[in-house]
Amino acid sequence: MKKGIFNFLLIILLFGLSASACKKDIEKPDPIIPVVKAEYEQYGTPFKSVPDPLDVTIYQVNIRSFSNSGDFAGVTARLDSIKSLGINVIYLMPIYPIGELKSVNSPYCIRDYKKVNEEFGTLTDLQKLIDGAHSLGMAVILDWVANHTAWDHVWMEDESWYKHDATGNIVIPNGWSDVAQLDFQNHDMIAAMIKAMKYWVYSANCDGFRCDYSDGPTFDFWKEAIDSLRDITTHELLLLAEGTRSDQYKAGFNYTFGFRFYDQLKKIYTENGAATLLDNVNSHEFNNVSDTNSVVRYITNHDVNSSDGTPVSLYGGKKGSFSAFIIAAYMKGTPMIYNGQEIACPTQLTFPFTSTTIDWSINSDVFAEYKKVLAFRNGSNAIKRGALKSFNSKDVCAFTKTYESETVLVIVNVRNSSINYTVPSALSNTTWYDAFSGTTKNIEEQLTLEPYSCLILKK
Asked: Is residue 5 part of a domain?
């Protein structure tokens, strides 16, 4: 009997302890999740209206040539004009201090990745520029030069961060004697580079980077850098590779650069090349490009404007250069405008971009035409996302873009003479509407096209 009572009491005691343990488990507070502190304090509020990569139209700003003051304030003063053009992404050429040792005064010769070039103003001035762009609904990306630095860059304190040749000398990349080649096998350098890129996302609130000479650094570097940038979940970043390697999409870039498109378009206008050259370009540049990536297309930029000439001189005056822009903006890819192009600036902006500034008072008629072209593009999913079908001939660039129920037909005479264009059977005897005026346009079996004329039709 006593043994039975003892066993009973023991059972009650064990049950109580078990219940107490269960209650303790139930009431146990959630574990404290450590807060991962950002490497830098965030300036401002991250921009929440970064456009979808396929909706982007880029405007390249050469700060030295853009205004008489040649600084950030000069750009900020014209943000309304850039916005009115139909732009949603501004790309600023390098903003960093320029090297002095072995220097040719190139903006692409960087002396410190985490400072602002005093020539352009202060970090506060840059922040004001980016804030102003954001307030108007435009994102801002910065030029980034990852492959090399100035010879007097702050990293030169540790030369192991640079690539050396067999004789122990630091390598000069591509004959660019003002810069020194970084070593992308050096993990300390890579970590510092990524940290410097993040600095601008936090400290200036920028929305991404255009990466200069992206074919130079390794795939592994870009993959690590972009993965790290994408981990900044407060920001939606746009990343443009100034390169052609197909693995750059795999690394995480949104865009590559349309070098071949520019070369062939120039050949069409300056050497009487056939418009059918663009068919091969589209096949080549968009090989392995996914539906969410794109190729940036342009008729000029800071490099070729300086070396080759202005669009006005290359493509046959105001009318010819405008027709070339129609092809770049509508055929395939993401258009990029270089400052001054939209007013048919007749003067080259030559390297190192310190001798000439743009006269914004000229050619308001050209600016108005650019606004119309970009306004239609911005509202057309067929242009931005549609399937391309080419009807090019030797002298005429003609194509349709189709997305869901929308189809756009573009016909451009690439010659400075009248052309009789035999309309392909798939297009002949069809009815369209002018994209700008809305008037009806019947396409018959033959079209007579005036010099450099453009038809932009829809249905």
From this structure: no
What CATH code is carried by the domain that includes residue 349?
3.20.20.80
Regarding beta strands 419-422 and 454-458, do their DSSP bridges make them parallel or antiparallel, or are they unpaired? unpaired
Q: What is the pTM of this model?
A: 0.91
SS3 (DSSP) at 259 = helix
DSSP E strands in 28-164: the ranges are: 58-61, 89-92, 139-145, 148-150
User: Are 176 and 298 in the same domain?
Assistant: yes
Last residue of a domain, one of 338, 365, 385: 385
Closest to 343 in 3D by CA, of 316, 325, 361, 319: 361
Query: Could you tell me which residues come within 8 angstroms of residue 94 by beta carbon, excluding any fewer than 6 positions away?
Result: 107, 108, 110, 117, 142, 143, 145, 212
Which of 287, 319, 321 lies closest to 304, judged by CA?
A: 321
Hey, is 337 helix, strand or coil?
A: strand
| Same-domain status, 127 and 187 | yes
In a domain, 188, yes or no: yes
Q: Which residues pair with 337 in a beta bridge?
A: 59
Query: What does DSSP assign to residue 69?
Result: S
Secondary structure letter of residue 174 according to DSSP: G
Length of the chain: 459
Residue 352 belongs to a domain: yes
Candidates 249, 337, 330, 326; CA nearest to 285 is: 249
What pLDDT digit, counting tens, does each position of 119-129 carry?
999 999 999 99
- Asked if 211 and 88 sit in the same domain, the reply is yes
Domain carrying residue 425? 396-458
Q: Are residues 260 and 351 in the same domain?
A: yes
The CA radius of gyration of the chain, in Å to the nearest whole number, is 28
Q: Distances in Å between the alpha carbon of 123 and those of 62, 89, 204, 310? A: 18, 20, 7, 32
pLDDT tens-digit map of 279-311: 999 999 998 899 999 999 999 999 999 999 999
Answer yes or no: do 370 and 403 share one domain.
Answer: no
Average of per-residue pLDDT across 398-409: 98
Report how many domains make up the chain. Answer: 2
Which pLDDT does position 26 carry in this prediction? Answer: 40
